[in-house]
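task queued by scheduler; priority normal; single chain, no ligands, no partner chains; default sampling; output format set to C-alpha coordinates
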Amino acid sequence: MKAPAILERALHAAWRRKGLSSTLLLPFSWMARAAIARKRQRYEKHPERVYHCPLPVVVVGNIYVGGTGKTPVTIALAQALRALGWQPGIISRGYGADIGERARSGQGDLDPARYGDEPALIARITQAPIAVHPDRPLALKRLRRDYPEVDVIIADDGLQHLALGRDMEIAVQDARGIGNGRVLPAGPLREPASRLKYVDFLITNLPFGQSGPTAADTPARQLTMSLVPVKAVQLTTGLELEWTSWLAEFGQQPASAVAAIGQPDRFFSMLRAAGLELSHTVALPDHHAYASSPFAGLPASPILITAKDAVKCVRFNDDRLWSVDVSPLFSDPEWITLANDMLRMIAQHKKAVAEHAPRD
Protein backbone atom coordinates (compact mmCIF):
# COMPACT_ATOMS: atom_id res chain seq x y z
CA MET A 1 0.00 0.00 0.00
CA LYS A 2 1.36 3.43 -0.94
CA ALA A 3 2.26 6.00 1.73
CA PRO A 4 -0.68 8.38 1.03
CA ALA A 5 -3.17 5.51 1.36
CA ILE A 6 -1.54 4.36 4.63
CA LEU A 7 -1.66 7.91 6.00
CA GLU A 8 -5.30 8.30 4.98
CA ARG A 9 -6.30 5.06 6.71
CA ALA A 10 -4.41 6.08 9.86
CA LEU A 11 -6.20 9.44 9.92
CA HIS A 12 -9.63 7.88 9.51
CA ALA A 13 -8.83 5.40 12.28
CA ALA A 14 -7.80 8.26 14.58
CA TRP A 15 -10.96 10.19 13.73
CA ARG A 16 -13.21 7.42 15.06
CA ARG A 17 -12.46 8.42 18.66
CA LYS A 18 -11.34 11.39 20.70
CA GLY A 19 -7.89 9.99 21.38
CA LEU A 20 -4.61 11.70 22.19
CA SER A 21 -3.66 12.53 18.59
CA SER A 22 -7.08 14.07 17.96
CA THR A 23 -6.99 16.06 21.20
CA LEU A 24 -3.54 17.45 20.41
CA LEU A 25 -4.97 18.81 17.16
CA LEU A 26 -7.96 20.48 18.81
CA PRO A 27 -6.49 24.03 18.76
CA PHE A 28 -6.24 23.79 14.96
CA SER A 29 -9.85 22.60 14.81
CA TRP A 30 -10.94 25.60 16.84
CA MET A 31 -9.18 27.83 14.32
CA ALA A 32 -10.93 25.99 11.49
CA ARG A 33 -14.33 26.38 13.16
CA ALA A 34 -13.71 30.11 13.56
CA ALA A 35 -12.76 30.41 9.88
CA ILE A 36 -15.91 28.48 8.87
CA ALA A 37 -18.07 30.79 11.00
CA ARG A 38 -16.43 33.92 9.55
CA LYS A 39 -16.99 32.69 6.01
CA ARG A 40 -20.67 32.04 6.64
CA GLN A 41 -21.07 35.44 8.32
CA ARG A 42 -19.53 37.19 5.30
CA TYR A 43 -22.15 35.70 3.01
CA GLU A 44 -24.94 36.47 5.49
CA LYS A 45 -23.84 40.12 5.68
CA HIS A 46 -23.40 40.36 1.90
CA PRO A 47 -26.23 38.31 0.36
CA GLU A 48 -25.47 39.91 -3.00
CA ARG A 49 -22.44 37.63 -3.19
CA VAL A 50 -24.71 34.58 -3.39
CA TYR A 51 -25.94 33.60 -6.84
CA HIS A 52 -29.60 32.61 -6.83
CA CYS A 53 -30.77 30.72 -9.89
CA PRO A 54 -34.36 31.16 -11.14
CA LEU A 55 -34.55 27.34 -11.31
CA PRO A 56 -34.76 25.01 -8.30
CA VAL A 57 -31.28 24.05 -7.07
CA VAL A 58 -30.55 20.87 -5.09
CA VAL A 59 -27.15 20.37 -3.45
CA VAL A 60 -25.99 16.82 -2.69
CA GLY A 61 -23.05 16.96 -0.31
CA ASN A 62 -21.55 15.84 2.96
CA ILE A 63 -19.81 17.18 6.03
CA TYR A 64 -17.54 14.12 6.47
CA VAL A 65 -14.37 14.47 4.43
CA GLY A 66 -13.89 11.91 1.67
CA GLY A 67 -16.27 9.52 -0.02
CA THR A 68 -19.63 8.87 1.59
CA GLY A 69 -21.77 8.05 -1.46
CA LYS A 70 -22.78 11.41 -2.90
CA THR A 71 -22.41 10.37 -6.53
CA PRO A 72 -24.87 7.41 -6.40
CA VAL A 73 -27.40 9.71 -4.74
CA THR A 74 -26.88 12.35 -7.43
CA ILE A 75 -27.38 9.75 -10.16
CA ALA A 76 -30.46 8.25 -8.50
CA LEU A 77 -32.01 11.68 -7.97
CA ALA A 78 -31.38 12.77 -11.57
CA GLN A 79 -32.89 9.55 -12.93
CA ALA A 80 -35.92 9.77 -10.63
CA LEU A 81 -36.61 13.41 -11.44
CA ARG A 82 -36.37 12.73 -15.16
CA ALA A 83 -38.90 9.90 -14.77
CA LEU A 84 -41.19 12.41 -13.03
CA GLY A 85 -41.08 14.83 -15.94
CA TRP A 86 -38.15 17.10 -15.03
CA GLN A 87 -35.21 17.96 -17.27
CA PRO A 88 -32.33 17.84 -14.76
CA GLY A 89 -28.93 19.38 -15.33
CA ILE A 90 -25.92 18.74 -13.11
CA ILE A 91 -23.04 20.92 -11.99
CA SER A 92 -19.84 19.73 -10.38
CA ARG A 93 -16.40 20.95 -9.42
CA GLY A 94 -14.72 18.64 -11.93
CA TYR A 95 -12.13 17.36 -9.48
CA GLY A 96 -8.94 16.14 -11.15
CA ALA A 97 -9.55 17.91 -14.47
CA ASP A 98 -7.76 21.02 -15.67
CA ILE A 99 -10.83 23.20 -16.20
CA GLY A 100 -9.23 26.62 -16.68
CA GLU A 101 -10.99 29.95 -16.26
CA ARG A 102 -14.13 29.06 -18.21
CA ALA A 103 -16.69 26.49 -17.18
CA ARG A 104 -17.01 23.45 -19.44
CA SER A 105 -20.27 21.71 -20.34
CA GLY A 106 -21.17 18.49 -22.13
CA GLN A 107 -23.50 15.53 -22.31
CA GLY A 108 -23.19 11.76 -22.83
CA ASP A 109 -19.75 10.14 -23.00
CA LEU A 110 -17.29 12.73 -21.69
CA ASP A 111 -13.51 12.63 -21.33
CA PRO A 112 -12.66 12.27 -17.61
CA ALA A 113 -9.41 14.15 -18.21
CA ARG A 114 -11.46 17.20 -19.29
CA TYR A 115 -14.43 16.88 -16.93
CA GLY A 116 -13.27 14.75 -13.98
CA ASP A 117 -14.02 11.08 -13.34
CA GLU A 118 -17.20 11.57 -11.31
CA PRO A 119 -18.82 14.07 -13.73
CA ALA A 120 -17.94 11.75 -16.63
CA LEU A 121 -19.57 8.84 -14.81
CA ILE A 122 -22.70 10.86 -13.93
CA ALA A 123 -23.04 12.13 -17.51
CA ARG A 124 -22.69 8.62 -18.97
CA ILE A 125 -25.24 7.00 -16.69
CA THR A 126 -27.85 9.77 -16.50
CA GLN A 127 -27.36 11.24 -20.00
CA ALA A 128 -28.13 14.58 -18.33
CA PRO A 129 -26.18 17.68 -19.38
CA ILE A 130 -23.40 18.61 -17.00
CA ALA A 131 -21.16 21.62 -16.45
CA VAL A 132 -17.97 21.69 -14.38
CA HIS A 133 -15.99 24.42 -12.67
CA PRO A 134 -14.74 25.02 -9.11
CA ASP A 135 -16.89 28.17 -9.13
CA ARG A 136 -20.33 26.54 -9.02
CA PRO A 137 -22.32 29.64 -10.09
CA LEU A 138 -20.05 29.88 -13.13
CA ALA A 139 -20.78 26.23 -13.94
CA LEU A 140 -24.50 26.80 -13.45
CA LYS A 141 -24.59 29.78 -15.80
CA ARG A 142 -22.72 27.82 -18.46
CA LEU A 143 -25.13 24.90 -18.08
CA ARG A 144 -28.19 27.11 -18.53
CA ARG A 145 -26.65 28.88 -21.51
CA ASP A 146 -25.80 25.66 -23.34
CA TYR A 147 -28.87 23.64 -22.27
CA PRO A 148 -31.85 26.00 -21.91
CA GLU A 149 -34.27 23.06 -21.62
CA VAL A 150 -32.94 22.24 -18.13
CA ASP A 151 -35.51 23.06 -15.43
CA VAL A 152 -33.87 21.76 -12.23
CA ILE A 153 -30.22 21.89 -11.12
CA ILE A 154 -28.46 19.20 -9.10
CA ALA A 155 -25.09 20.17 -7.62
CA ASP A 156 -22.87 17.14 -7.08
CA ASP A 157 -21.03 18.19 -3.92
CA GLY A 158 -20.89 21.85 -2.93
CA LEU A 159 -22.59 21.84 0.48
CA GLN A 160 -19.84 24.19 1.67
CA HIS A 161 -19.84 26.32 -1.52
CA LEU A 162 -21.76 29.25 -0.06
CA ALA A 163 -21.62 31.38 -3.22
CA LEU A 164 -24.21 29.04 -4.69
CA GLY A 165 -27.76 29.65 -3.52
CA ARG A 166 -29.74 26.47 -2.99
CA ASP A 167 -33.35 25.48 -2.36
CA MET A 168 -32.80 21.96 -1.07
CA GLU A 169 -29.89 20.22 0.62
CA ILE A 170 -29.25 16.48 0.78
CA ALA A 171 -26.45 15.37 3.08
CA VAL A 172 -24.94 11.91 2.62
CA GLN A 173 -23.02 10.08 5.33
CA ASP A 174 -21.93 6.49 5.85
CA ALA A 175 -21.62 4.09 8.77
CA ARG A 176 -19.01 6.38 10.35
CA GLY A 177 -21.68 9.00 10.98
CA ILE A 178 -19.91 12.11 12.27
CA GLY A 179 -16.86 10.18 13.50
CA ASN A 180 -15.54 11.73 16.71
CA GLY A 181 -17.65 14.82 16.06
CA ARG A 182 -14.68 17.14 15.62
CA VAL A 183 -13.83 19.45 12.76
CA LEU A 184 -10.67 18.99 10.68
CA PRO A 185 -7.88 18.29 11.49
CA ALA A 186 -8.81 16.84 14.92
CA GLY A 187 -11.77 15.09 13.32
CA PRO A 188 -13.21 14.26 9.91
CA LEU A 189 -15.80 17.02 9.62
CA ARG A 190 -15.70 19.90 7.12
CA GLU A 191 -18.24 21.73 9.27
CA PRO A 192 -19.60 21.27 12.80
CA ALA A 193 -22.13 18.44 13.16
CA SER A 194 -24.79 21.07 13.93
CA ARG A 195 -24.79 21.81 10.19
CA LEU A 196 -26.98 18.73 9.72
CA LYS A 197 -29.83 20.56 11.46
CA TYR A 198 -30.30 22.68 8.35
CA VAL A 199 -30.39 20.05 5.59
CA ASP A 200 -33.64 18.68 4.15
CA PHE A 201 -32.63 15.03 3.82
CA LEU A 202 -29.93 12.97 5.53
CA ILE A 203 -29.10 9.72 3.74
CA THR A 204 -26.83 7.16 5.41
CA ASN A 205 -24.98 4.88 2.99
CA LEU A 206 -24.60 1.43 4.56
CA PRO A 207 -23.45 -2.00 3.36
CA PHE A 208 -26.47 -4.23 2.91
CA GLY A 209 -27.71 -5.49 6.28
CA GLN A 210 -25.40 -3.32 8.39
CA SER A 211 -26.78 -1.11 11.12
CA GLY A 212 -26.02 2.58 10.96
CA PRO A 213 -24.81 5.21 13.42
CA THR A 214 -27.05 6.82 16.01
CA ALA A 215 -29.73 9.00 14.42
CA ALA A 216 -28.48 12.54 13.94
CA ASP A 217 -29.90 15.48 15.85
CA THR A 218 -31.69 17.06 12.91
CA PRO A 219 -35.27 17.69 11.76
CA ALA A 220 -34.24 16.42 8.32
CA ARG A 221 -35.94 13.36 6.90
CA GLN A 222 -33.49 10.53 7.63
CA LEU A 223 -33.16 7.32 5.64
CA THR A 224 -30.57 4.74 4.68
CA MET A 225 -29.41 3.37 1.36
CA SER A 226 -27.46 0.29 0.35
CA LEU A 227 -25.66 -0.08 -2.97
CA VAL A 228 -26.17 -3.35 -4.83
CA PRO A 229 -24.63 -4.49 -8.13
CA VAL A 230 -27.13 -4.55 -10.99
CA LYS A 231 -24.97 -4.97 -14.08
CA ALA A 232 -21.45 -5.83 -15.23
CA VAL A 233 -19.94 -4.39 -18.41
CA GLN A 234 -16.83 -5.77 -20.11
CA LEU A 235 -14.66 -2.79 -20.97
CA THR A 236 -13.12 -4.16 -24.17
CA THR A 237 -16.31 -5.39 -25.85
CA GLY A 238 -19.08 -3.38 -24.19
CA LEU A 239 -20.88 -6.64 -23.36
CA GLU A 240 -23.50 -5.96 -20.67
CA LEU A 241 -24.81 -8.68 -18.36
CA GLU A 242 -27.32 -8.40 -15.55
CA TRP A 243 -25.53 -9.12 -12.29
CA THR A 244 -27.25 -12.48 -11.72
CA SER A 245 -26.31 -13.57 -15.26
CA TRP A 246 -22.71 -12.42 -14.84
CA LEU A 247 -22.48 -14.20 -11.49
CA ALA A 248 -23.82 -17.44 -12.99
CA GLU A 249 -21.31 -17.34 -15.85
CA PHE A 250 -18.18 -15.93 -14.21
CA GLY A 251 -18.76 -16.02 -10.48
CA GLN A 252 -17.80 -19.64 -9.95
CA GLN A 253 -14.10 -18.74 -10.00
CA PRO A 254 -12.31 -16.41 -7.59
CA ALA A 255 -12.14 -12.87 -8.94
CA SER A 256 -10.09 -9.77 -8.25
CA ALA A 257 -11.41 -6.30 -7.47
CA VAL A 258 -9.76 -2.89 -7.78
CA ALA A 259 -11.22 0.38 -6.55
CA ALA A 260 -10.00 3.98 -6.46
CA ILE A 261 -12.83 5.54 -4.49
CA GLY A 262 -13.17 7.19 -1.11
CA GLN A 263 -13.93 3.90 0.66
CA PRO A 264 -12.66 0.95 -1.47
CA ASP A 265 -13.56 -1.60 1.20
CA ARG A 266 -17.23 -0.74 0.71
CA PHE A 267 -16.95 -1.87 -2.92
CA PHE A 268 -15.25 -5.11 -1.94
CA SER A 269 -17.78 -5.82 0.82
CA MET A 270 -20.65 -5.21 -1.58
CA LEU A 271 -19.25 -7.74 -4.06
CA ARG A 272 -18.78 -10.37 -1.37
CA ALA A 273 -22.30 -9.76 -0.04
CA ALA A 274 -23.58 -10.19 -3.61
CA GLY A 275 -22.15 -13.71 -3.78
CA LEU A 276 -18.64 -13.24 -5.19
CA GLU A 277 -15.43 -14.76 -3.83
CA LEU A 278 -12.53 -12.32 -4.08
CA SER A 279 -9.00 -13.71 -4.20
CA HIS A 280 -7.29 -10.32 -4.58
CA THR A 281 -8.32 -6.76 -3.75
CA VAL A 282 -6.43 -3.58 -4.58
CA ALA A 283 -7.41 -0.32 -2.87
CA LEU A 284 -6.12 2.80 -4.63
CA PRO A 285 -6.41 6.45 -3.55
CA ASP A 286 -9.60 8.26 -4.49
CA HIS A 287 -9.45 9.86 -7.96
CA HIS A 288 -6.38 7.77 -8.84
CA ALA A 289 -5.06 8.90 -12.22
CA TYR A 290 -4.36 5.40 -13.61
CA ALA A 291 -1.24 6.69 -15.37
CA SER A 292 -0.19 3.05 -15.71
CA SER A 293 -2.10 -0.19 -15.37
CA PRO A 294 -2.37 -1.58 -11.83
CA PHE A 295 -3.81 -4.84 -13.18
CA ALA A 296 -0.66 -6.49 -14.60
CA GLY A 297 0.18 -8.44 -11.43
CA LEU A 298 -3.32 -9.79 -10.90
CA PRO A 299 -4.23 -13.36 -11.93
CA ALA A 300 -5.91 -14.18 -15.23
CA SER A 301 -9.43 -14.09 -13.85
CA PRO A 302 -12.22 -11.51 -13.97
CA ILE A 303 -11.21 -8.17 -12.47
CA LEU A 304 -14.08 -6.06 -11.23
CA ILE A 305 -13.74 -2.28 -11.00
CA THR A 306 -16.10 0.55 -10.16
CA ALA A 307 -17.96 2.45 -12.84
CA LYS A 308 -16.11 5.57 -11.68
CA ASP A 309 -12.76 3.91 -12.42
CA ALA A 310 -13.97 2.39 -15.69
CA VAL A 311 -14.07 5.76 -17.46
CA LYS A 312 -10.28 5.93 -17.05
CA CYS A 313 -9.43 2.26 -17.65
CA VAL A 314 -10.91 1.55 -21.10
CA ARG A 315 -7.61 2.52 -22.70
CA PHE A 316 -5.79 -0.43 -21.09
CA ASN A 317 -7.63 -2.80 -23.45
CA ASP A 318 -7.67 -5.57 -20.83
CA ASP A 319 -10.25 -8.31 -21.50
CA ARG A 320 -10.33 -9.19 -17.79
CA LEU A 321 -11.83 -5.86 -16.76
CA TRP A 322 -15.52 -5.64 -15.92
CA SER A 323 -17.16 -2.48 -14.68
CA VAL A 324 -19.86 -2.92 -12.02
CA ASP A 325 -22.89 -0.66 -12.21
CA VAL A 326 -24.64 -0.25 -8.88
CA SER A 327 -28.05 0.97 -7.80
CA PRO A 328 -29.11 2.28 -4.38
CA LEU A 329 -31.88 0.64 -2.39
CA PHE A 330 -33.49 3.24 -0.12
CA SER A 331 -35.13 2.38 3.18
CA ASP A 332 -37.68 5.10 2.48
CA PRO A 333 -38.41 5.21 -1.27
CA GLU A 334 -41.03 7.91 -0.67
CA TRP A 335 -38.31 10.47 -0.08
CA ILE A 336 -38.13 11.01 -3.83
CA THR A 337 -41.86 11.77 -3.94
CA LEU A 338 -41.45 14.30 -1.14
CA ALA A 339 -38.45 15.90 -2.84
CA ASN A 340 -40.40 16.13 -6.10
CA ASP A 341 -43.35 17.81 -4.35
CA MET A 342 -41.03 20.29 -2.64
CA LEU A 343 -39.28 21.11 -5.91
CA ARG A 344 -42.61 21.67 -7.70
CA MET A 345 -43.61 24.21 -5.08
CA ILE A 346 -40.20 25.87 -5.24
CA ALA A 347 -40.40 26.09 -9.04
CA GLN A 348 -43.87 27.65 -8.89
CA HIS A 349 -42.74 30.18 -6.29
CA LYS A 350 -39.67 31.18 -8.28
CA LYS A 351 -41.73 31.53 -11.43
CA ALA A 352 -44.24 33.78 -9.65
CA VAL A 353 -41.46 35.93 -8.21
CA ALA A 354 -39.86 36.29 -11.65
CA GLU A 355 -43.20 37.29 -13.22
CA HIS A 356 -43.78 40.03 -10.67
CA ALA A 357 -40.21 41.29 -10.56
CA PRO A 358 -39.73 44.87 -11.85
CA ARG A 359 -38.34 44.96 -15.38
CA ASP A 360 -35.61 47.30 -16.52
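post-processing summary
- The longest strand covers residues 221-234.
- The CA atoms of residues 22 and 268 lie 29 Å apart.
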